[in-house]
Amino acid sequence: LREMRHENLNLYLGLFVDSGILALVVEHCPRGSLADLLADSDVRLDWMFKSSLLMDLIKGMKYLHLRGLTHGRLKSTNCLVDGRFVLKITDYGLPMILQSQNLSLPEDPQDLLWTSPELLRNPVRGGSFAGDVFSFSIIIQEVISRTLPYAMMDMPAHEIVDRLMKPPPLCRPVVSVDEAPAECLNLMNECWNEDPTKRPTFDDIFKQVRPESFSESL
Predict the structure, then answer these.
(1) What residue ranges define each of the domains in the chain, with the CATH number in brackets?
(2) β-pairing, 87-89 with 79-81?
(3) pLDDT tens digit string along 194-208?
(4) Measured between alpha carbons, how far is 181 from 186 in angstroms, rounded to an integer?
(5) pLDDT recorded at residue 156
(6) At what angle do helices 182-191 and 129-145 cross, to 10 degrees?
(7) Is pLDDT at 99 greater than 80 in this prediction?
(8) What is the 3-state secondary structure (H, E, C) of the chain?
(9) Residue among 164, 34, 152 at smallest CA distance from 109
(10) 154-187: pLDDT as tens digits
């Protein structure tokens, strides 16, 4: 993990273990998480700003996947924002570290809202490449609407998780067509495809997204 160097990855500095406490030591990002930023009504997020955050996430995940590492816990609280408003992915490699220490994390239904249906049905420690892409699609919804995952469905997290695991019908967030450019909405839909083999890779996404249209004004 120490060899991972990319502008959009939060720098891993080491591991702290003491009296049963395990913690990752990473670089400090003063703006907090992406979730914090989206929830802060004092921060104005125009589409140019939103698209910049999403592009940072795409570039960071492309780097991670091209090096053969899945994230497994990708969500807005694991995306940090530095003082220059650059998004940096954190907690990558955490499942691998937990496994090496024979540890696991408790599963809160709220934390599972970013998890793909196939991984909810058949959990894989460390996740999967296609599972990370699904998680990215839920973050797209958060960034577009500045709401929590599936907030428009107005139901508790455990019910949403149950519906994700047992289609039909498919359970997905609802985003208005006037909230984002068509290219972004199309990408979101591709990334949360029920069939993981039909989701694009982050390399595909990086090649597919044209910055000039992805960041077009609404």
Answers:
(1) 12-214 (1.10.510.10)
(2) antiparallel
(3) 999 999 999 999 998
(4) 9
(5) 96
(6) 140
(7) no
(8) CCCCCCCCECCEEEEEEECCEEEEEECCCCCCEHHHHHHCCCCCCCHHHHHHHHHHHHHHHHHHHHCCCCCCCCCHHHEEECCCCCEEECCCCHHHHHHHCCCCCCCCHHHHHHCCHHHHHCCCCCCCHHHHHHHHHHHHHHHHHCCCCCHHHCCCHHHHHHHHHCCCCCCCCCCCCCCCCHHHHHHHHHHCCCCHHHCCCHHHHHHHCCHHHHCCCC
(9) 164
(10) 999 999 999 999 989 999 999 999 999 999 999 9
- Least confidently predicted of 31-35, 122-126, 137-141, 173-177: 122-126
Q: Tokens at residue 189, please?
A: 């839909």
Instruction: Map tokens 């960034």 to a residue.
Output: 143
Average pLDDT score over residue span 36-60: 95
> Taking the CA atoms of the chain, what radius of gyration do you get in angstroms?
17
Residue 82 has pLDDT above 60, yes or no: yes
| Cβ neighbour number for residue 13 with a 10 Å cutoff | 12
Q: What is the dihedral of CA 30, 34, 35, 41, to 10 degrees?
A: 80
